[in-house]
Specification:
single chain; alpha/beta; Rossmann fold; nine-stranded mixed beta sheet; 10 helices; binds nicotinamide-adenine-dinucleotide
Length: about 350
């Protein structure tokens, strides 16, 4: 019987409670891991979540928790500000690290995480769960078969009509660094770039807007509590055009609040033989004198987060390469940094 991996989780808020810890507990039930620690700055949060595990202890200080056990895996679900420093400490303690998106607050922090991963020979993976959804895996298979022909453009879009996160610290720049670009843009761009095969970005032109989030009269539908409007200092709409190596492009547009008819979005990748779209999911082309759409009549609806946690566990168990390579997450972080810089300077900026 293989040894059980010792798992610790840091930041037991919303995403940990709903999508990470339930899946680690499943693995614990299967005898593959033992969850030994759950840490949060808020005592009630770590105590409640630790109590749901078989033997986990609650911790208020993550460094004390790291010092207590030689963890095999540390799962980091704090808000963005904690991602890099906690990842580096966890990697230096000898643990493999899975960390929520976005990778860090900026590319410099992301590079430090990769350096710590290399120095300690420990795996590092950003939790881009969308890559693990069955439909997106199918689209990846199609791309890899060569069916798209020459890929020349992609689009990463998620426009919410009203959907500013009304919990946590998503709306505060010093905690999260950005608004929808850092929150949902990172998902869509990661998926788009992964499907496109991660061509190297050369330059980006972007623009961000803050039109609603800092208004007291904002009507935010059913999205959590209404945070104090004066705290809101990130964007609520962002767009960009990324120039990729070889003449390809990626458009990105994301919002938490816009005056549009309804929420819309998805990832599109265009080739000269066929295109793919995530919404509606399918492969779009033409055959003789007809337009065609190919999709799948049945796909597993298993939660991408579940598959992602199980993938990471298996990568550590079997020493396999993680699907979301940290260098790829660094590329996404560089694009996001570039969009903010371009917006500030009001011109296209190179991505190095
Ligand atoms: N993959 C997804 O679909 C998805 C969805 C939502 C959130 N997220 C990401 O997950 C992260 C957390 O989001 P959330 O909605 O759970 O926020 P949240 O505010 O509900 O939870 C974050 C928790 O981290 C704790 N924390 C912060 N710093 C800490 C530290 N130094 N030590 C211990 N605990 C600390 C906070 O007290 C809080 O309980 C964010 O980075 C967000 O981008 C990902």
């Amino acid at each position: 019987m293989a040894k059980k991996l010792k798992v610790g989780l840091i930041g037991s808020g919303d995403i940990a409670r709903q999508r990470h810890l339930p899946y680690w507990r499943e693995l614990e039930d299967e005898g593959r891991v033992e969850i030994l620690g759950v840490c949060d700055l808020i005592p009630e949060r770590c105590e409640t979540q630790a109590a749901l595990c078989k033997q986990a202890k609650p911790w208020l200080r993550y460094r004390s928790m790291l010092a207590k056990h030689p963890f095999d895996i540390i799962d980091i679900c704090t808000q963005n500000r904690g991602h890099a420093p906690i990842s580096v400490d966890a990697l230096n303690s000898g643990a493999h690290v899975i960390v929520e998106k976005p990778m860090a607050m900026n590319a410099e922090e992301s590079r430090a995480m990769i350096a710590a991963s290399k120095k300690n020979k420990r795996k590092l993976m950003v939790a881009q769960h969308m890559r693990f959804e069955a439909g997106h895996e199918k689209l990846k298979e199609v791309v890899e078969s060569g069916a798209l022909g020459k890929i020349y453009s992609g689009e990463a879009k998620w426009l919410r009509r009203r959907g500013i996160p009304g919990w946590g610290k998503f709306h505060i720049a010093k905690e999260s660094f950005g608004g929808p670009m850092a929150d949902i843009g990172v998902h869509m761009m990661d998926l788009c770039m992964w499907l496109m095969g991660f061509p190297k970005p050369i330059a980006v032109s972007g623009k961000i807007y803050r039109m609603f989030g800092d208004r007291d009269d904002l009507f935010n539908a059913e999205w959590g509590r209404h945070y104090p409007a004066k705290e809101f200092d990130v964007e609520d709409y962002a767009l960009g055009l990324v120039r990729l190596e070889g003449g390809a492009t990626m458009q990105v547009s994301v919002s938490w609040a816009l005056n549009i008819p309804e929420e819309t979005g998805g990832v599109m990748v265009l080739g000269d033989k066929a295109g793919i779209h995530t919404n509606p999911l399918g492969v779009y082309s033409a055959d003789h004198s007809s337009l065609t759409r190919n999709s799948w009549d049945w796909l597993s609806d298993e939660d991408g987060h579940r598959r992602e946690i199980r993938h990471f566990c298996e990568c550590v168990e079997k020493n396999k390469q993680v699907r979301v390579q940290p260098e790829q997450s660094l590329v996404i972080q560089k694009i996001i940094d570039g969009i903010y810089l371009s917006s500030k300077l009001n011109k296209e900026v190179p991505i190095k």
